[in-house]
């Protein structure tokens, strides 16, 4: 993998946005294929949002016309109210927020420190270590998910009580099991290593001679120079973490520990007398998707350049 | 390792500078080990050990809930997969079809989208954002949404005028999953192709056009060779993620109707988790890993040969 994934370099600015002077007013016909495609990418999402606001009968009767994609007719937040009554959606959201935040924050710390050391500190085995870390990138998570469940069910876990603590066996149904395995990321370490390599070494020496500790060099001197890499690593961690499904499905049985994507299973077999509650389902999917879409639209430049830098060739 | 040990090692008569350097080096070594330790420890515990375990457990009868030590069963699990488990072969066939269709389709469409959004025209950023939106949306949500649209009285039939129960008929279920998967992931490939397109030196196009090359010739002789590294990267990543197909199946079809959409990972999870048969699940995981590794190496070998 080492040759196929290349260093994240400063991208050509145009991947994200062109400078204004270069932008041409396109001929009207160049917009036709773009607009048609854009429509096909937007419609399912518009359908989801519109349906979440409509009563069940109207959702079904609107299916045959353009009204399916538009918030028209008898609109209300009833689906949301009913959905919150049926599903502990607030708890699921809170779980996902806690898990995602901790994985991102701890991941940035652990992976950037490793990247700093691998790029800038001379110690034995450093090249071998970097190659070994990069080699793990070809192993898909799905290939070791089952042994991993077996393994974490056997790990000791410290449980705190009000009057002390106990050591129990097995990590299932805990925040630990949803957070700790995902903190270290070979790909983030690789991104950080490349970024730290791009900063001149002389800076370290100067700071060291001034008496700064290595941690201080890492934290206050070099890391501020590669802030964009921190943003990239944060985005590339945040998205899969918020959207993660397989792992929590395997290790969480308790309802109150579910993150949002697994919370979706609440609706899998939930037919009522009137059939599947599609309005409520669309309310739930909107609830867990709209915040991410808003974050994406605000930070779209960073999102798109972070994805692009994961594949830029050196 | 520590500075106190290192100091006497430096010769008495040495100049102060080398001595200080060696102390600095020791310090650097310790910092290097300290800085990498948390990441290395986590990778060992949550990646290396589980991967090694899958090698070991594949040859045992380990069970999920059981606290007893698993017993060694030799090749039993592998023989079972190859000779006594028709679902395994169905899963293999389905995943082969999925990979063979999705990889070229998604990669190709991604390139078309990238070429379209690589124009310097007003509002192009908006189109890039829109095409990328399904990638941001989780696969669980997208699957649920399309499940609704694929219903017999759903949106797809309403728009096309057909009357097909897409996810419940053996010959339409897998194609339906394929269409949805391509739609969800193509924006990701678009961005990768786009950054590849923009890393091509612009002077090459000017030189080509001075030599009288038309648009097609420019694409053929400048763009395509320039995209080679991107091509390799994209095809390896799509292939691996296509092999790992799971979420769509779990949400939309549960592998049905009559195994028409079951996949290797879905089967692994069913056996290893739902049925608690860790030994067999691990054996299947090992087979899966070997397939992914073989395909990756083959792809890299083939794309390298042409250089």
**Rg over alpha carbons of chain A:** 24 Å
What is the largest interface, and how many residues per chain? A-B, 106 and 103 residues
What distance separates the N and C termini of chain A? 13 Å
Question: What is the helix content of chain B?
Answer: over 70%
Assembly status = heterodimer
| Beta content of chain A | under 5%
Shape of chain B: globular
Terminal CA distance of chain B reads 46 Å
**Main sheet of chain A, how many strands, which sense, barrel?**
2 strands, antiparallel
Which percent band covers the strand fraction of chain B?
A: under 5%
Strand order of the largest sheet of chain A: 1-2
Please state the overall shape of chain A, judged from the principal axes of the Cα atoms: globular
Furnish the topology, listing elements before pairings:
The complex is a heterodimer of chains A (314) and B (307).
Chain A: H1 31-52, H2 56-62, H3 78-86, H4 89-120, H5 126-135, H6 145-152, E1 156-161, E2 164-169, H7 175-179, H8 186-197, H9 202-209, H10 214-222, H11 227-242, H12 246-251, H13 260-263, H14 278-298, H15 300-309
Antiparallel strand pairs in A: 1-2
Helix pairs in contact in A: 1-14, 3-14, 4-8, 4-11, 8-11, 9-10, 11-15
Chain B: H1 3-9, H2 16-57, H3 76-83, H4 86-117, H5 124-136, H6 139-150, H7 155-160, H8 170-198, H9 202-210, H10 215-226, H11 228-243, H12 247-252, H13 264-274, H14 278-305
């Amino acid at each position: 993998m080492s040759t196929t994934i290349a260093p994240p370099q400063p991208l050509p600015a145009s991947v994200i946005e062109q400078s204004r002077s270069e932008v041409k007013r396109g001929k009207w016909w160049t917009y036709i294929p773009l607009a048609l495609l854009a429509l096909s990418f937007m419609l399912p999402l518009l359908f989801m949002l519109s349906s979440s606001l409509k009563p069940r009968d109207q959702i079904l009767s609107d299916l045959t016309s353009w009204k399916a994609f538009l918030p028209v007719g008898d609109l209300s937040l009833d689906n949301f109210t009913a959905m919150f009554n049926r599903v502990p959606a607030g708890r699921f959201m809170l779980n996902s927020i806690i898990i995602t935040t901790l994985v991102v924050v701890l991941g940035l710390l652990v992976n950037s420190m490793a990247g700093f050391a691998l790029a800038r500190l001379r110690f034995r085995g450093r090249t071998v270590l970097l190659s070994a870390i990069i080699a793990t990138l070809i192993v898909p998570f799905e290939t070791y998910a089952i042994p991993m469940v077996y393994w974490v069910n056997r790990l000791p876990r410290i449980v705190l009580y009000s009057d002390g603590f106990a050591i129990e066996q097995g990590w299932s149904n805990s925040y630990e099991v949803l957070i700790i395995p995902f903190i270290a990321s070979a790909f983030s370490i690789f991104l950080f290593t490349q970024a730290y390599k791009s900063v001149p070494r002389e800076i370290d020496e100067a700071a060291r001679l001034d008496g700064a500790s290595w941690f201080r060099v890492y934290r206050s001197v070099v890391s501020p120079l590669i802030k964009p890499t921190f943003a990239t690593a944060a985005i590339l961690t945040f998205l899969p973490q918020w959207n993660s499904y397989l792992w929590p499905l395997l290790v969480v049985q308790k309802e109150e520990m579910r993150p949002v994507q697994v919370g979706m299973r609440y609706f899998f077999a939930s037919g009522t007398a009137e059939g599947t509650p599609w309005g409520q389902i669309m309310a739930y999917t909107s609830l867990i998707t709209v915040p991410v879409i808003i974050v994406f639209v605000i930070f779209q430049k960073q999102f798109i350049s972070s994805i692009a830098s994961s594949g830029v060739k050196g | 390792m520590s500075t106190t040990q290192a100091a006497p090692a430096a010769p008495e008569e040495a100049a102060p500078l080398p001595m200080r350097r060696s102390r600095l080096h020791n310090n650097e070594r310790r910092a290097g080990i300290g800085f990498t330790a948390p990441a290395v420890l986590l990778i060992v515990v949550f990646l290396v050990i589980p991967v090694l375990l899958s090698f070991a457990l594949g040859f045992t009868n380990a069970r999920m809930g059981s606290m007893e030590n698993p017993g060694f069963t030799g090749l039993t699990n592998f023989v079972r997969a190859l000779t006594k488990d028709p679902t395994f072969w169905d899963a293999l066939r389905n995943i082969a079809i999925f990979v063979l269709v999705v990889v070229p389709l998604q990669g190709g469409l991604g390139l078309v989208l990238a070429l379209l959004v690589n124009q310097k025209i007003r509002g192009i950023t908006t189109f890039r954002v829109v095409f990328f939106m399904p990638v941001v949306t989780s696969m669980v949500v997208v699957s649920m949404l399309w499940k609704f649209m694929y219903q017999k009285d759903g949106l797809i039939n309403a728009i096309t005028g057909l009357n097909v129960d897409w996810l419940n008929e053996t010959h339409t279920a897998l194609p339906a999953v394929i269409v949805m998967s391509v739609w969800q992931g193509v924006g990701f490939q678009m961005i990768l192709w786009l950054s590849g397109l923009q890393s091509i030196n612009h002077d090459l196009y000017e030189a080509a056009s001075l030599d009288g090359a038309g648009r097609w010739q420019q694409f053929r002789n400048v763009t395509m060779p320039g995209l080679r590294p991107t091509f390799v990267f994209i095809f390896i990543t799509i292939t691996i993620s296509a092999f790992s197909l799971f979420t769509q199946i779990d949400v939309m079809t549960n592998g049905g109707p009559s195994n028409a959409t079951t996949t290797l990972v879905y089967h692994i999870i069913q056996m290893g988790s739902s049925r608690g048969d860790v030994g067999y699940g691990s054996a299947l995981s090992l087979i899966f890993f070997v397939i992914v590794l073989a395909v990756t190496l083959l792809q890299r070998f083939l794309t390298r040969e042409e250089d």
